[in-house]
C-alpha cells in the first residue's frame, strides 16, 4: 500500500477518533489521578486537597496490605498465565475443527463469559465448600482429605486461580479462534505432506502463524491478570487474612470504601509503573526471536 | 439535571436522591409519600425524586453520590446508610436537621443515636432493622429440645445455654447447629455480631470514638470473640455455610435479619419456624440486639433548607413512615408507628418490633466507620481460623491497634 | 518405486453441483512418469489432491502398492507434492521451507544441508536461501516449492504445474533436471502441465482429461499420432489440429462448402469403407504441420492442394503460421519461415493425407484403427 | 472399507464425547441458571447438591412463575430496550472507531506511529475501575451527563480492540489491497469493502466482546444517568439481587433474560467466524 | 492511448542488498503493446509494480503522457493490472471481483452486467460467476484476474504472466482475445510473459531484461534476428541458440577442440575483418533450426558439415530435437521428424552459416552490424 510522503500521515486521521476518545476518558482521568496522588484527597472532602508531597508514595511502601497484595498478584500471574492461555488455545483448537455440534461447543466454552458472576460464584462456592462440596466429594473418591479451599489462606488464591482460568479462558479462546481462522489451509496441507503429524503441524505452522495473536493475547492476559479484582471481591472479599487481596482491589477499596483517593492514586501510579515494567519484560520475552511486532 | 442550582433561597423545588428502585414496594410507597407532600405542604414546595438502585452495601448509589460530590452536583436531600452519618457530617456534606424534625421523642433511641454526630442530629432513619435467631421447630423437637428450654425476650438464654442447645442439635443431626453467616465479611459481621460484644460489656471504641486499644481488646470484648471461636471450633457453626441451609432443613438455626421473615413466608411455606432472641453473656446477662437503617439527610448543597427540612420531616412523619414501613414489612423507627403496625403483622415481626424497642443498640458513629467495620469482620475471620490463631486475645490486641489507626 | 491404482474414483466438492472428477480409472506402474493434461478446470489438481489425501475421495478406491489408502492421512502416505499455488511457509526462510520435511523425518543436520545445497544449486536459489518467500519473485517462489518437494526423496512425487512461472530457458533446464532426477530415483511421478513440450518429453504415459473424465491414456506418441477422439486430437499439438466436416464419396472427401475435394489414401479408405462410412459424413482432422506449402509437395500431390487467402500470418523465428479460411473453418498451417505470406496473399496448400485423422461425426471417436 | 470408515467414525464419536464432557464443565452454570429460573427458590436449594439441580421443576406451571413476578415487579422491557440501545450503539461505535484506528496503525507508516502504538499498549495497563470519579468529572465537564452519549462514548475506544484490528489488518496480503487500489478504490473504500470483510473473524470477536462489555456494565450507567427511564437492564438485576429479601429464582430469571441476548449476539457473530474467509487472494486454498 | 516514459528508473527493496531494477529507460508510445521477457527474478514484476504505483520508485522519473507520476497514488493512475499471483478478493464472488472496479467508477448496474457477461463469455467463466475464488481451479482463478482487469477499460493495461496457468489451447484463444482487445481499444499495454510465442505474436516491441537491466528493446523480429548480445540471443528462441567459442582464421572459424572448421560467408567475414577480429577468438551462435540434416543441404554445403553422436533425441510430433556434443558444448538441433535418430547414432549436420551470429568474446555484444 502507498506509504509515501504526506500520504502516510493520512494514518493520523484514522487513528485520531480513537485517540481522542482514549485521551478524554482514559488519559485525562489518569493524569488527574496522578495529580491527586500528591494530595490527601478524600472523596468526601473534594474541596480540601492538601499537597502532601511524596507522603502517599512513602506510605505505599510501608503498607503491609499493599505489599501482601503484590505478593498475591505475583502468585496469581505465575499460575494463571500458563493455565488460562493454554486452556484458551486448547479450546480454540478444539472448536476450530469442523465437527458436528460445533456451535454448541463454542457456546459452552464461552458460557462462563456470559453468565453473571453471581451465578458463577454461587455454584463455585458450592463446589468448593469445604464440608460437603462437590470437589471434596470427588477428592474423597481418591482418598484425599477434604480441603478447606476458599477458607484457607494457603489455598484460597489457588481456588481463585482455578475459577478465574475457568471463567476467563473463553475470552481468549475467542481471540485465538479469530487468529486461527486466518491461517491458510494450504499451509497445513503442505506440512501434512511433509510428514508433519498433528502435533508438529501445531508447533511448526499454527504457533508461528499465530504469533502476532499470541503475543497480543499474552500481553493483554498478563495485563488483565494484574487487574484482577472481581473474583476475589465476590468470592473472598480479599480474605482470608488478605491472602487473596489484590492490588487493584486494594486500590479500589482504599479509594472508594475508605475514600482515600489521594493515597489510592499514589498506589495506582506505583502499580501502573510495576505493570509497565513487567509488561515490557514480558513482551521482550514473548517477542524473543520474533521480528515484525513492534 | 443535577447541576441546576442557580436557584435562590426561596426556591421551592427540592431534589432528592434515594437508593431504592421506584419499582419496589418501598419505592412505590415513597412515590406516594412524595405525591402527598407535594400536594399537602402549604409553602408550595415541589419535591422530585431520583431513584438510584444500589448494589450490595451501597455500591452504585454511593459511587454516584461520591461522583456528584466531587463535581458539585449533589441534590438537596439524599438517603444515606446509618454508618455513613459521621463521615458525611464530618465532611460537611450534610447539615444538621434537628430543628426541622418534629416529635423527636417518638423516635427510637437507636435512630437518634445513629443520626447524631457531635451532639447534633444530621440524619434521621425512617425504619429500623434487626437480627434474630431463627429456628426450625421440627428439628428442635426431633433433637429433643423442649419448648421450655427456649428463650424469650423476657427470659433470654446465656451463651452457655445456647451452646448446650447447639450441642444437642449437632449431636443429633451431625451438622452445624446454626448458620451465623460467618462467611459474610461485609458490614453484616459487625452489624450482627457486635451485640455479642456489647452484651459482654465490651465495646469497639470508647464512647467518644477516639480509642480502640483497651476497648476492642478488653477482656469483655475478647470473651465475645472467644465465644465465636468456640462455636466454630466445636463445630456448632461453620465458616462456610451452605446457602439457605436453614431454609432447606440442613441447619436447625440461622442468625439473620428481619427480611428472612418474608423469604420464609413466601418461599418456604412448609417450614415450621420461630425466632429467638440473642443469647446473652452469662456474666452480664445483658440483652442486646443490632439496629440500623438508611436515613434521610439534608446536603450542604441544599439552598432552601426550610423546604428540604420540611420534606424530611414529612417523610419521617407517622403517616408517611407507616406507609413505607408497611409496604416493605420493615421495623418502624417511631414508637407510635410500632403501635400502629403491631396488630397488622405476624408474630415474628411482632417479636422483632419488641426486640428492637427493648434491646436495640446503635452502631458506633465513627468517621472511619468503613475501615472499622472491615477490621471487625477481619477479626471475626481471624478468630474463626482457630487453628491458625488459637490465641484470641492476641488477635484482639493486634486488631485493636489496627482500629486505633483509623480513629486518629 | 510404488504402484498406484485409481479405481472408479469420483469427486464432488461439498458445495458443488457436479462431479469434478468422474469414474477415474488409472493404474500407474512403479517408476512410471505420468503426465496429466487437460483444459483448465478439468480436474487435474483435484485428482492430485485426492492422491495426496488432501481431498476426500467421494467414491471409488485409491491404492498404493495394492493397499487401499482412501482413509490414510496424508502424512502417512509419504508423498512429496509441488502445489499449484506453492503453499510456501511464509514464516520460514527458503532454507527452512526446504528443510522442514527432512527435519520431521529426522534426517541429520549435515545431510539436510547437503541436500538443500544441492537442490538450491540446481534451482538457482543459492543466494536466496535466507530470504522469506515474501521477498521473492514469482518464479523464485515456484522454484522453492519445487525444491521443497525434490529434497524429500519420497517414493511418490506429485507436481502441479511446477514450472508455469519460469522463463523458457530455465524451464528447459528444470525440465531436464526433473527428467534426470526421475531417472536417478525412479520415483513414481504424476505431473500436471499445460506445456506440450513438457508433457511430450517427460511422460512415460500421458493422461488426457476433460470435464473430470479420462479421454485417453497413452505414450506421448500414441496420444499424438493416434488420438482417441476429436478432443484429444484437438488438445494435443500446438497449434491445434484443424477439423473439417466432410463427406466420403467415391474415395474422395469433400467439405460441405465445396472448398476442397481430395482423395483418401487407399489404406485409410479401406478402413473407413469397412466400417461403413462410405457416403457418410465424417470429421477429418489435419495437423498444421501436415499442411505443406513447399513447391515440391504441391507438385507431387496436385490433388491434395487447396487454395485460400491468408487472414493472419505469424512469423515465429524458424517457422511461420498461416491462418486461412477453408471449408467454413479456420485452417492453421505451420510452414517454413521461407514460405511466409502476408495477410491477403493467396496461397496454395497441400494436405498430407497419410497423416490425416478421421472421426465419427456423432461420437467423435477415432476411426483410424 | 466399511471397517475403516467405522474406525474413523469411532474416532469422531469418542472425541466428540470427550469434548461434550468438557463442554458441560463450562456450561453447567448456564444450565443451572436457566433451570433454576424455572422452579421455586425452595427447590433450587433443595436440589443443589444432586443432579436435579440441572432439571427444571417437575411442575410445568412453576416454570414461568419467577418470570411473571419479575415482569410484574419491573418494566423489564424498557430496561431491555435501553440495554439493547446502549450495547448496539457502543458495539457499532467500537467496531468503527477501533477498526479505523487499527487500519491506521497497520497500513500507514505515519510519523509517530510506533510511539503512539507503544502508548496504546501502555494504556492497556490503566485500570478503568479506579478512575470512575475522574471519568465522571470529565463527562460532566464536557457536558454529556444524563445523555446516552455518556454511557456509550467512554467505552467505545479500547486499546485492546485497536490492537486486535491492527494485527488482523497487518495479516492481509498487500496484494489484495493493491488490487483494490488499482481498481480505483479510495483508502476508505479499501477499508470498508476489502479489509473489514476479510477480517470478519476479528470484527465478530470485537463485536461480541464490546457488546458483552457494554451489556454487563452497571455502575457507570448508573452514575451518569439520573432518569431511571434510561437505566439499563443491569440496574434491575442488581436491584433484584440486592433488595432483601432476595428471591433466588427471580434473580435467576432476570439473569436468564439478560443472558439470552448475549448468547444470541454471540451466535450471530460466530456465524461469520465459522464461514471464515478460507483463503487469501493469491490462490491459497 | 497514453504515452509512458521511464527515465533512469532504479528500484531497491528496503531489505535488499542490490538494486532489483537498474537504470531502466523505456519510452512507450501510445497504443503500443510492449512485452517484457527475462529470466525469473530479473525485475519484470517489480517494474510493472512501479508503473502501477505499488512500489516506490527509488530513483528516476516515471511519466504518463509527459506528466511525472512518481508520487501519484495508484488509484489515480487509472491502470488496470493482472497480478502474477492473481490477488483476487477472497470474500467476493467472481462476479463481484470483476464488478468492484466498475462500481467504484460509478458505472451503471446494467453496464457492469453487460461488461461482465461479455468478459466471462470470452474467458469461459460464465458458470462460475457466483463462486468464490476458493472454489475455483488455478486456471479459473487466473482467468478471473484477467477478467477483472479487462472489464475496466483503463488506458493502461499491465499484465503479469496472465496466461501461465492455462492450457495450451485456452492460451491460444486467450492470446488471440488479448490481441483483439488491444486492437479494439488501443490500450497502451505492458505484458510480462515467459512464453516465446506470446511474446513474439503479441508484442509491438519486446523488452529483454536481465538482472534488472534492459538488454535490448526491439520488434520481435529484431530481437530474434539481430540479438544485441549473447544473452538475448540465448534467451530468445526455443530451444536456445547454440554457442561455440571459436577462432577466426583464414576466413574459417574453428572451435577450440578442433571439432569443426567452417568457412564464413563473405559478407559476414568482411564485417568481422573490418572490426579487426581476424585471428581473434569470438563467440559464434547458431540456432537449432539452422542446423540441417536434410541430405540436400549436406550435399550443397559440404564444408559446413559437422559430425557427432546423438546423446538424446526428442520426438515432438512434427519435428525432432537432437542433442549432440560438439566442440565441448551441447549442440541442440531441431530437424524434421523424418530425420529422427536414436541416441548413439552417428549424424551429419550442416550449419547454415548465413544465419550464424558472432559476438565479442569479452563484452558478448553482437558483431553482426
Ligand atoms: N519484497 C522484496 N524484497 C526484497 N527483494 C525482492 C522483493 N520482491 C522481489 N525481490 C527481488 O527482486 C528481484 C526482482 O523481482 P521481480 O519480482 O521483479 O522478478 P520477476 O522478473 O517478476 O521474476 P518472475 O518471473 O520470477 O516473477 C528478485 O531477485 C527478487 O528476489
Ligand atoms: N473447493 C472447491 N469447491 C467447489 N468446486 C471446486 C473446488 N475446487 C475446484 N473446484 C472445481 O472443480 C473443477 C476441477 O478443479 P481442478 O482444480 O481440479 O482443476 P484443474 O484441472 O487443476 O484446473 P487448472 O488447470 O485450471 O488448475 C473445476 O471446475 C473447479 O471449479
Ligand atoms: Mg489445477
Ligand atoms: Mg514476477
TrEMBL record, chain A:
Keywords: Cell membrane, Membrane, Transmembrane, Transmembrane helix, Transport. The keyword Chaperone does not apply. PROSITE patterns: ABC_TM1. It holds the Pfam family BPD_transp_1. Residues 70-282 form the ABC transmembrane type-1 domain. The chain crosses the membrane at residues 12-32, 73-95, 107-127, 156-177, 215-235, 261-281. Belongs to the binding-protein-dependent transport system permease family. This is Fructooligosaccharide transport system permease protein. It comes from Lactobacillus colini.
Automatic annotation (TrEMBL), chains C, E:
This is Multiple sugar transport system ATP-binding protein. PANTHER family: MALTODEXTRIN IMPORT ATP-BINDING PROTEIN MSMX, OSMOPROTECTIVE COMPOUNDS UPTAKE ATP-BINDING PROTEIN GGTA. Residues 4-236 form the ABC transporter domain. The keyword Metal-binding does not apply. It comes from the Bacteria. The lineage of its organism: Bacteria, Bacillati, Bacillota, Bacilli, Lactobacillales. Keywords: ATP-binding, Nucleotide-binding, Sugar transport, Transport. SMART domains: AAA (SM00382). One of its GO terms (molecular function) is ATP binding. Pfam families: ABC_tran, OB_MalK, TOBE.
TrEMBL record, chain D:
It is found in: Cell membrane. Signal peptide: none annotated. Pfam families: BPD_transp_1 (PF00528). Keywords: Cell membrane, Membrane, Transmembrane, Transmembrane helix, Transport. InterPro entries: MetI-like, MetI-like_sf. It is a multi-pass membrane protein. SUPFAM superfamilies: MetI-like. The chain crosses the membrane at residues 12-35, 84-103, 115-136, 142-163, 190-215, 251-269. Residues 80-269 form the ABC transmembrane type-1 domain. PANTHER family: ABC TRANSPORTER PERMEASE PROTEIN MG189-RELATED (PTHR43744:SF12), ABC TRANSPORTER PERMEASE PROTEIN MG189-RELATED-RELATED (PTHR43744). Belongs to the binding-protein-dependent transport system permease family. This is Fructooligosaccharide transport system permease protein. It comes from Lactobacillus colini.
